[in-house]
Specification:
The chain is α/β, with parallel strands linked by helices and about 180 residues long. About 25% of the residues lie in helices and about 30% in strands. It has one domain (about 5-165): Dihydrofolate Reductase, subunit A. It has an 8-stranded mixed beta sheet, sandwiched between helices. It has a two-stranded antiparallel sheet with strand order 2-8. It binds NADP nicotinamide-adenine-dinucleotide phosphate.
Length: about 180
Amino acid sequence: MNPYLFPIPISMILAVDNGNNIGKNNRLPWGHFPEDMRWFQEKTINSTMLMGSNTWKSLPGKLKNRHHIVLSSKLLDKLPDTTLLNRSFEDSIRRACALSPYPKLFIIGGKRLFEEGIQFVSRVYLTRINHLYDGDVKVNLDEILSREFYINNIDTILSKNNNIEMKFYEYVRIKKVENPGSH
Ligand SMILES: NC(=O)c1ccc[n+]([C@@H]2O[C@H](COP(=O)([O-])OP(=O)(O)OC[C@H]3O[C@@H](n4cnc5c(N)ncnc54)[C@H](OP(=O)(O)O)[C@@H]3O)[C@@H](O)[C@H]2O)c1
């Protein structure tokens, strides 16, 4: 599988704390960091976002200038733009690329989509929040990130609200020489 050969670039965006927590009670463990929300908005604008049904339920609704595709085993009460029912992960990615009205696709969570999806992405946007929260969903992608990606950029900021440090990483997949791609 060469992620550079999908028809549009596929990226992943997530935030973790020092314990690799990503969620608590179907919300973010840290509540809301405006700086991280802004980073999420900037990266995902004009893209299709692929997510699991819990992540979809955790959103306030559809976000402007984005196409929402949700994986589920059943039709949902709150309807996204598209629901993909009971498909394999690879098939879901292919379908999402084909359905996307935008030229890029983002995997935005949760756990299973991050863990199964990382093999299909060429970029990972990861916010590391330098604090430990209480969480009930964890994701640790460090091993695969260090093996298959390089760090293209890191920005560090302190949250204005409470001075907590956030590092915004951009990881890019290392291209194999025998498998070049265009994006
Ligand atoms: N920190 C971050 O960056 C971040 C990002 C996203 C989410 N979150 C947090 O993470 C938590 C939600 O994540 P989660 O891991 O619990 O849930 P999730 O991945 O959003 O949703 C899981 C559900 O999606 C459906 N699903 C997933 N893959 C499927 C497939 N291939 N085919 C059919 N259905 C599939 C199943 O539900 P059904 O079949 O029952 O519908 C499954 O139970 C929340 O707390 C949220 O706030 C954090």
